[in-house]
User: Fold these one by one.
Assistant:
Number 1:
Amino acid sequence: MYPHERSLVEKYSADPFAIVGINSDSSIEKAREVVEKNKINWLSFYDGSPGGPISTRWNVTGWPTIYLIDAKGIIRYKDVRGKEMDDAIELLVQEAKAEQAAEKSK
Amino acid sequence: MIPRLRRYGTVCLVIAFMLSGPAVAFSSSPDSVGVADEKMEAAAEKAFEEINKKMSEAQEAYYKPLTEAREKGLSDKEMEKIELDPELDPVMVVGPEMLKTIDKYAGTDAALGACDQMLALAGRSESAGWMAEKVMSALKAHYLKNEKLVDVLRYSHYCSEAMAPAMCDFLSVVVSESPHREVQAAGCYSLAKIKGKKEETRSEGLALLKKVQDEYGDVSYGRSVYADKVKGDLFEMKNLQVGCVAPEIIGKEISGKLMQLSSFRGKVILLDFWGDW
């Protein structure tokens, strides 16, 4: 998963796109080590454990769990994977760029 | 202490004999019924052990192209391109024999375990859907009053979309017919989860979750109770659906800095719950 996510961050570095993680590793030291070792290039909330407050509120019971949120903050996809996820990201990024362009031309 | 316990045991045995009066009259002795059951159970266990061996072999054969590719050191991308032969799908290969054996040993614990296994395997594969339906018929015919049915229901909401209507019918029967609250609660919960997946039936799902909360809140769910379990599901069903505004998250980034989800507004976000384990 890490190499693919890293490549997404690189691919969309000039576009309105970000990965936001919620990390549930058992200690913050461990989380920092994982970030460094895997050259993770996105930010993550640290949730303390799989039963942490964010995961509990979001009712997460399996990892990884994925949500795709559009530029307006609306949940658009849940638990998409692989090519389906990549296609969905592309669609949402193009949509966001089109909206930005429309804003500018107003 | 020990002698007293023994005496207590004897008293219980006598009471059990008195309670089972009429049944005793029809069978040669209550013990022989137990022995017959045990024999049946042992035979069932043995039969399913054999089938599980076949299942493992079938799985090995099915995943062979992937195992070989991994040994050759192919990348994840190349691995994704490998297509597995649907005719070698272990459910298709061993499933029919498993169904026959379930029929033969219907009523035993071993067959109930096999039903659970079959539902998990067949309930997620469209071409094996008919097998899942057979399993549900067997469960309805032989295990509707059985307390252990709860084990089979626990993950039933993970079934495929194609399987969902049949599963909903089955769960509705279980909820209304089972005499055990644990079974009713598990059935009602799974039914709620399936109904909640689709927009058209989400309000039904919400109503069922509330029913679980109101009627079965005190029933245990793992180390917790349904009242607690359902809280997260209610929040998810109301606020975490496609089309909802993502709820705010405020917390600390791994580096220690404060961060909030809404500050990423204007960007498409891949929200990823992860951990390295």
Number 2:
Amino acid sequence: MELKQPHSLNGILLYVISTVFVTYLAFHGDIPITAWNSVFWIILMFGSMNAASRVLYQEPYSRHAFYYQLLNPTHLILSRLLYNGLLIGILSLLTFGGFSLLCGNPVKHTSYFIFELLIGGIGLSSVLTVVAAIASRAGQSFSLMAILSFPLVLPMMLVLINLGEQAITADQITNGLRGGIVLFLLALLPALIGVILFPHLWRD
Amino acid sequence: MKQNWWRWLGGLLILKSIIIGLLIPVPQLPVIHESIRNLFYHVPMWFAMMTMFLCGVINSLRYLKNFDIRYDRLAVESVNTGILFAFLGLFTGMIWARFTWGDFWVNDPQLNGAGITILMYLAYLVLRHGIEEEQKRARISAVYNIFAFVLMIVFIGILPRLSEGSIHPGKDGNPALGVKGPDATMRLVFYPAIVGWVIIALTIRKIRLTHVYLNEKLLDKE
């Protein structure tokens, strides 16, 4: 469905590329490691917020009515979760690529970092998808989406930034598996609650 | 008056904890010293807050089951009261931190968790303001309330344990009950203080609810 509107996808891509470029210019291409990590995650957070909100809130009311007659709400939210997970996963890889191209790549444990990136992407997308659903039912404004999702995304961002810092600076990954499992659970949980609660949101 | 005896009991318990909390001898711990007495004033606030938020989420669940607008009112007023206590807890904590750590706010997982919680519930109120239609507002905000509450519990439970090096007292195990240091006499004051503040929180919620209903009646008459 979304693929029919390539301009919105391109918009997200352009957003990521231009923010990466702005960061590169702002730091004159020479970024300290902690700043690299935090700026990277902040860009990713806003990028995924854009991506997730686009899916739901650019939807006109008539289309909502159309889906409403056609689809099972559980299927709809599941498909949206999958779609957003994929989208944000790709987005995060692209951001990583662009960032290391322009600003250098200080990451020592690349595979661990990418693993974290993907799971973090799933987590972000599951929180943001549910919040976008809530915001879109509440009268479609991006500011509402931002207000609702910030406090919910923040703790996950803290975990991600901590793990990311470890992947960048540490010589040896300690508790890598444990961090990954925790992150994975954090990613699954919001999706699960979202799937349970979405039918309630759906009724009109 | 008679059926409200337990509300008065709550007031008495708090009064007791305030007065006795200042009088009894306390164990001297490094760094904290006499300020350990803040246990009687600061920690019960969080207990009251958590109780209120729990009430809020239970009522949201009940609303989604029965679609009775009364449960929605209960949920909102629970959250309102909870936010009040969150701010009280924050302020008592900040005053304490000013004297113990030398600053009103330090970068600590415990404090950040509290900040995030407050933001979350303020967002809940903002969300409610954004929706006109009553039933719709109730339903959507109930969904958000449940979602936020579960995530909050998980984050508060997991985050502080992931990041080592919190300087908040009682970091090992449960942040509130596991504080090492309070001896038997302190516990005698501490637990009644918790009960007292929870009762006061319930009372405040009751008063707010009555206020809401009375307002509605007035509007109906006009």
Number 3:
Amino acid sequence: MATLEIRDLHVSVEADNATKEILKGVDLTVKQGETHAIMGPNGSGKSTLAYSLAGHPKYTITSGTVTLDGEDVLEMSVDERARAGVFLAMQYPVEIPGVSVSNFLRTSATAIRGEAPKLRTWVKEVKEAMERLNMDPAFAERNVNEGFSGGEKKRHEILQLELLKPKIAVLDETDSGLDVDALRIVSEGVNRVRESGEVGTLLITHYTRILRYIKPDHVHVFANGRIVESGGPELADKLENEGYEAYTTKGGVTA
Amino acid sequence: MAEAQNIPVGSTTAGSIAVAAESTVATRMSAPPSFDVADFPVPHGREEEWRFTPLERLGGLHDGTAVATGTGIKVDIDAPEGVTVETVGRDDARLGKAGTPVDRVAAQAYSSFEQATVVTVPKETQLAEPIRIAVHGEGGTAFGHQVVELGAFAEAVVVIDHTGDAVLAANVDYVLGDGAKLTVVLVQDWDDKAVHIAQHNALVGRDASFKSVVVTFGGDVVRLHPRVSYAGTGGEAELFGLYFTDKGQHQEHRLLVDHNKPHCKSNAVYKGALQGDDAHAVWIGDVLIRAVAEGTDTYEMNRNLVLTDGARVDSVPNLEIETGEIAGAGHASATGRFDDEQLFYLMARGIPEAEARRLVVRGFFAELVQQIGLPDVEERLLAKIDAELEASVLEASA
């Protein structure tokens, strides 16, 4: 069973010629089949955690370890991490002018699966996955994320999640900027992948709203660069009622 | 466009919009246009029109030392039925109608060619197949002159391919009758040592449309002057270009659109990618809107993607407006490095770095190719870009 282990992770960024520590010792274990919600106020370092796991060059790991089934993730390049089974659904997916969605998806699936998917079954697979996410077939011919609405970008991220079948899925604020209908469609997509039991999900969010659709097994409160409280789904209810105030006053939020 | 971030060291992106009674596009040339090489002094390299060009690599085309060799170049023309192809002497009245040489090398070519090729598409003829002109360098030096003339309401596509190795100076005239539609695809797929300097003059008739697709991949030095002027009102010109400048190559495209008649349109989009030490791309985009040219609608854009250190881009759009009574006029130039966020996004989906870079560069060009509007030309270009990218390493990190 795939397990992602994060131990005492410290991460800093360079900003204005100064080094700033964002993550200050994160410990977390995510197993295949589990869903962990990471909740916290803006600026607490949630997205830094997501991008650090995926290997974004902007973030420097200063200490700590991340392993996937014992393999050192931090030693891997960005593409190696993805091929090892780590998937990041991004909060702000990037436009790639001139590269069509269909070309992108096939290139990506070929890289992840280690061989080009058979054309006939692939076309069907993509078509069905798009239908489940209420996506127009014409979408496949558009350029990646170019001119996409916020909802289209997020559905495109979840489409990739469904097609690439990672071991560990990190969903960075997938709910942000979505209306209720789009949130439901996107959440159903995430739930289909979770129901396979083969993915460990790290759901990073500011709001409790998405947790009505995606039920976490564990909820962690993130403040000032680390996990400050962990619990079951009931912790989300508490946050819904009380907000983050209790954590920010004692944690000292970085803006 | 606000994309001029990350401008690399060693590139210039300068632009100007001048509103003036007198054209500086014309006056900043060191000599007025002429068919006679003797009217141009030998350039020394500091002239405005020569300051980016490596004169020592021109095979003597600029100083009179280049001499035509018997087996300089081979030209094969494959024209569909209905098209007339003639080889004519220097005195043929149809030569030189679309424009006058603007620099010494173009004038040298005009003064030195012995025979010219005239391709004529009669009026109201619509060609189902393109006219193909294959220019193959056989290692020598040559001076050329070609004319493509379309009668009124004729429609044609001309594909001109340059391959092999040569030192070539040439003038090409495109004369479009009223309502004619001409698309020219001009491919520079030269071997590594070739030197190619040419002036291409399009004279666009009343309500005629001229579309040019310039593709420069090969050669040691390629310097092209695509120029457009109008013979009547209502003409349209679309100038697309793409270039891929590798290590040591010099590729220079100097456009001029002369809006000399009212109610004409022009749109120029050139995109280039550069990689390797001393790869040098130059793009000059001159647009002149004369006082008579009311109702002009023009836009020009140049974008460059610098893939490695050591490459240099000089991009200079100039727009001169002598009348305020126009529909629109604009220009944009942006030179940027590889976008690391695009790279990260693709790699985060498992795509290895080299392949991700190829995808982004292919996409950068595909965005332009998609605007051409001729499916078979688009397909052929994308295949060509793929082959070029396949041959390129693209490993070096920007």
Number 4:
Amino acid sequence: MKKQFPLNHVVGFILSVVLTIFAVFIALETDFTTTIKLWIIGAFAIFQAFVQLIMFMHMTEGKAKVANIINISYSIFLAVVIVAGSIWILTTGHAAH
Amino acid sequence: MKLDEFFVTGDPLILGSQIAIGLTMVGLVVLITYLKKWKWLWNEWFTTVDHKKIGIMYIIAGVLMFFRGGVDGLMMKAQTSRPNMEFLDAQHYDEVFTTHGVVMILFMAMPMLIGIINVVMPLQIGARDVAFPKLNALSFWTFFVGAMLFNISFVIGGSPDAGWTSYFPLAGKEFSPDVGNNYYAIALQIAGIGTLASGINFIVTILKMRAPGMKLLKMPMFTWTTLVTSVLIVAAFPILTVALALMTLDRIFGAHFFTVAAGGDPMLWLNLFWLWGHPEVYIVVLPAFGMFSEVIATFSRKNLFGYVTMVVSIVAIAFLSMLVWVHHFYTMGNSAAVNSVFSITTMMIAIPTGVKIFNWLFTMRKGRIQFSNAMLWALAFIPCFTIGGVTGVMLAMAAADYQYHNTMFLVAHFHYVLIPGVVFAVFAGLYYWWPKMFGFKLNEKIGKWHFWLFVIGFNLTFMPMFFVGLDGMSRRMYTYSESTGWGAWLGVSAVGGLILAAGFAALVYNIYWSFRYASRDIGGDPWDARTLEWATASPVQEYNFAVIPEVTDHDEFWKMKKEGRNTLKKEDVKDIHMPSNSGIPIIFSVAIGIVGFFLVFEWNTLAAIFSVGIIAGLIANSFDYDDGYHIPAKKVWETERKWRGDL
């Protein structure tokens, strides 16, 4: 097997770093309202998730289709439980008043 | 920081420990040097990538931590044994219950289970090692370094004192300015790396390295529980990683994720902590269920009842365990909808757990039960664990929980779940798999002492806590007045603690006695067992299987024995490819530990300088092209002849 330069990984790494720094910059150094900041940061986060999935997790490669589907649905389940669940818990009840 | 702040001073108990630790360290170094064992230790243990040796090191670390956590527990029992005791002051008591909780869950239960998984699981699936042997060594050493870093806190700098849950705002910089809680954040982070890597390692091993013919539904039950636990580790531990990273940023770098004044939210910590913390409970209890399944099947002389429903229920437990975390903080003032949903999901967990209990009972029904030590632990587990489970359903009801929340009732409940569920299982597993690890059995007679002292001591210690809890005693109370009327209950509980400790001492004596006197002539299969690990020698050869077996059944070894297939033909034995030892994992982990230590004391420049060591370790590892070595077929054949005898 030939050893290739891991271009995908390097590009993915640089993209992740840049996107993160950009998010910090938007949050700390700009004058947008909080809502707009959240939308921009959120968009970066989702974009970065795809970068990770494709560049590092090799989502598009491999023959094991069923395993991929199970993995992706499990990840979506976890993400929904953790993110949506946390927002639900922390913004209703006493915290809302 | 002055030297007298660096070391904890002023308490005779701690001074005693400091002297004892110092003497033990010097003694060990002198002893090892005198016996000229350094090279042997380095070559055979510190750099090993053999899953069995790594497992044994995990178990040794777990037993040591059991002692440490147990002493913490005894100190608490002594302090509360009489009203108005003055054995520990409030601060010291806070530190002791904090370290007791962290040590018992993360540095006792986890390594015991991961250790037994390491030894047994590759053998059960007919593999020669785990998928990533070097990563496995790294897992162990990062865990060990994290555990040691946490353990030195009580003599250097001061222990964490905000409870094993370390709730904000108490655990924040404002209310806990000392280094204690930095230890919590950093040491758990380091140990967590190792656990996450173990989880990944076990998943890949089980999915990719099963012997030919072993379909998923032909795996032994312990392997199944290991797989599901590993999936849970990979799902839950990153949440702890993030939570601890935020805690570190808050405490060391001045961020405010969890402080209200600066726009943060302390409840976010609780939320993240229990998003990890609840699955963690099932991470430790599922492999324990697997061990009981193996032990009960073997000593009832029957195959496991309801294999498929067992698998379905562990998957269901794992799925539900991600959906119940709010039941740890119903009282935060959630909406009625939140509390109702989490009440229901929590109660639902009792269903698959009940299925498992009945499956074990039906496995025993009409079986020819042998009351070996391993089986005794499994038998005691069922009633004790059921008490824990049923009180858990009581706590699950949000409305009722407002009464039970943070009382001793809760403390009694989770000890009734975790001690039968994990500690009994570890004891059952140790008695059962001891011959595979060391080549001799633990003594059955001393084991009976261990069993009876421990089980009686356990019930005496924790049963009274239900009653004082219902009577209004809240957890973590370090003292109480005579007029409460709890003195008698807590006195009994303290006596129970001593009996529990005597039980543990009996185990230690049993290990010593058996190591010196037990028969080494026990063959590969001393229990007449059912699964593949018993097709190897005791202790297991370094390459595990001379020839990888073909699997047709989930009790494959039982079937092999019935069909007479467990013999070896010389022409089948080939050269065996083995991974080489590596010093990188231990050196790399020590580097992480040093950086962690500096971070604890917030010596950030030093930490930054020494992190170069971590990066150097990563780079050095990338250029490691060692492809392992081969054991020639001739040597394998000789080794096999030695233990099989009849070839």
